[in-house]
Specification:
mainly alpha; 3 strands; single chain; minor pseudopilin epsh fold
């Protein structure tokens, strides 16, 4: 079965003013769609065809085409899920408690996650993962993700795309402003669900 571009649960303009409609439209319908089509082409007729995207990302010896497009498919699929209109705030559920246990308070978590996103040179992602029941923050280059990398391991439950195509129309070179705005659209109910599933 071929991978399909997931539909968004909200309109392209629903995350404004934090993420503008034009960026969302291009990002979803062009970039993510491209990763989806290229992934299907790259795995067609190989031993990876029919595997889940998680299984593909965890596979050894991936070709460049599968690694880049498989990562692009997986990463964006999670990214759209963990955002929502009228999101943000400080989580008060189980993942909120885990954040306080690990980082001391929400502001310290926010600062550490923001640093991971801001200091990723060039294109890549910042991640919050669950690894053996413990939260961890890391970043990856390009379309890599924690399923692919030792040292940035665990199950991803929150991610932020810091490729320029994710923010440049609205924020230009002001990546820190984009990162700060991202915290206004996080769907903490969804992140909490992913956290509980990863335990």
């Amino acid at each position: 079965m071929k991978f399909e571009l997931p539909e968004l649960e909200y309109a392209y303009n629903a995350l404004e003013p934090n993420i503008d409609a034009k960026t969302m439209e291009i990002h979803h319908s062009k970039h993510h769609n491209g990763y989806t089509n290229n992934l299907n082409n790259a795995i067609e007729g190989t031993e990876l065809e029919g595997k889940t995207i998680e299984e593909i990302c965890k596979s050894e010896g991936l070709s460049g085409a599968v690694r880049n497009n498989g990562g692009g498919f997986y990463n964006h699929q999670l990214f759209w899920q963990i955002m929502t209109p009228n999101g943000g705030g400080e989580p008060t559920n189980e993942v909120g408690s885990a954040i306080v246990r690990k980082y001391g308070d929400f502001e310290k978590f926010k600062a550490e996650f923001s640093k991971a996103a801001a200091t990723r040179f060039g294109s890549g992602w910042a991640w919050l993962c669950v690894n053996n029941g413990e939260l961890s923050i890391c970043s990856t280059a390009n379309q890599d993700n924690p399923l692919m990398q030792e040292g940035c391991g665990g199950k991803p439950i929150l991610c932020l795309d810091v490729w320029e195509h994710a923010y440049y129309l609205n924020y230009q070179n002001k990546r820190p402003d984009y990162i700060n705005s991202f915290f206004n659209v996080i769907n903490w109910r969804k992140v909490n669900k992913l956290y509980l599933e990863a335990l």
